[in-house]
Amino acid sequence: MARPLTAKQELFCRLYVISLNGTQSAKDAGFAAKSAHVTASKLLRDHKVKARIAELQAEALASSEGQAQEAERQATVTALEDEAAAVIAELRNHAFANLFKIIEITPAGGIRCRSLDALPEDIQRQVKKVKTSTRTFGGGDVSVTEVEYEVELWDKLASLKALAQHYALLTPAGGKAKAGEGEPTNYEVTMSIPPAAPVEGAA
Question: Cα separation of 62 and 57, whole Å?
Answer without folding.
Answer: 9
